[in-house]
Structures are given as C-alpha cells and as structure tokens.
Amino acid sequence: MLEEIKVIFEDDDLVVINKPAGILVHGDNKSTEPTVVDWLEKRYPDAIGVGETQLDQSGTPLRRSGVVHRLDRDTSGVLVLAKNQASFEHLKNQFQDRLAQKEYRAFVYGAVRDKWGTIDKPIGRNARDGRLRSAQHGAKGVLRDAVTHYERIVEGQYEGELFSYLKLTPKTGRTHQIRVHLKAIDRPIVQDELYSAGKYKDSNNLGLSRLALHAHILELETPAGAKERFIAPVPMEFEEAAERIAWE
C-alpha cells in the first residue's frame, strides 16, 4: 500500500503527502505492517530520527521519524512530515499554537438539519474503554477543550436511508476529535467501527467500504516563511457517494 502514497508538495524542509486510508502513520512496536514512517525513512534517509521521542507502554521508543501530526489509520488525506529537526520544531509549533488550519470531509448517518453549526464539547476518556475518547456525559480523566465547526454540503437518502455530507474545520486537535464530536451529536461517521455503536452493521453505508473521513485541506506557514495551502483531492468514492444522496 505504500506505493499508493502520493506527494503533494516537498522542499528541503518538509514533504506533504496524500495518505491513503488503511495505512498507519507510525507503528506501535507490535505490528509489522508498513507505515508512513517506513515510507519516509526509505525515501529520505536523512530524516531518520527527526522529531521527538515517545515511548510505548513498555518504555520502548516508537519510530516516529518526521511525524508532526497524525491521521487515524482509516482516515485518508493531507499529512505533513518534517525532513529535519528545525522543520519539525517549526511545524510542531504551528499545530500547538493552532495556527495550522484544517478542513475535513465526512459522511454521517442521519440528517444534519442545520446548514452550519459548532460542536463545543470537551473530550476525555471513554468510561468503559480507556483506549477510546468521549465527549459525552461520564467521560473520564482530564477533559480537554475541543471545538469543531461544520457545514452541511448535502443531505439525502440512499436506498431509503438518510445521510449527510459535511465539511468540518476542527479548531483543536484532540485524538479522534471529529469522530468523537460527531458521535456526541448522534451523527457518527459512516463505517466508523469504533464510534458508530454498530450502526455500520445494519446500514447500506452509502456503498462505502472505508471510514468516510478525509483530510482535505491543510494551511500553514512553512519553515521557509511561506503561507501554503495543501489539498488532498476528495476521493472519487466520496464524490460518487455525494451524488447518490444528492440525486436519489
């Protein structure tokens, strides 16, 4: 699958890719499946070790060369990677200071009646499964502020089932934020096995066979001082799914 990774932009400091769905950004020291980090280290050997050390539960360092931010395994779209340490520090600050602007596209189960809206719900740990996050009553641990704006692009039916297609602009960058926030308003993402409470098992899923979440646009200032806008084109299967609900 690594051959499916497409370069959107690169210079001496960074490389921006369109990550396919189904590929991990980095490993967990358990799985041997290929990752974006494997791709980066093979293509740019000088980037090996760039970043900051993070440990797994056993205290072993994780291989995270170039990783500034993450996309979930099943999320596709635009991802920026640092080629050197100075670039990493600059890009990390862009995300930490909320200067990087992100836009996602997603299909959700059900009708979203409001054309525009904001989900402003802090995120903590799921009370029953500490690996998952929650923005609902009963969330455990430290609750971190999280804000996601959305715009409804289209809503409609496919084979008698209601769906909505959304543009989402998260203002914070919490783990699983968009997935958790949409679950909190009872509009989970299509084919989300973690947060849809099993809806995907009984749904036609708009004919999609993957998580219906795509990182479409990323805007930030590069280490060279240029303000750039990187775009990962909306996948063809998303365009086809949007047509299904727009015209049925």
Set out the fold topology.
Elements: E1 6-10, E2 14-19, H1 36-43, E3 76-82, H2 85-96, E4 101-109, E5 116-120, E6 123-125, E7 133-134, E8 140-144, E9 147-158, E10 161-170, H3 177-184, H4 199-202, E11 213-221, E12 227-231, H5 236-247
Parallel strand pairs: 3-11
Antiparallel strand pairs: 1-2, 2-3, 4-10, 4-11, 5-9, 6-7, 6-8, 9-10, 11-12
Largest sheet: 9 strands, mixed
Give the helix proportion (percent range): 10-25%
Predict the CATH topology of the largest domain: Pseudouridine synthase
N-C termini distance: 34 Å
Primary descriptors:
single chain; 248 residues; alpha+beta; Pseudouridine synthase; three-stranded antiparallel sheet; 5 helices; 12 strands; globular
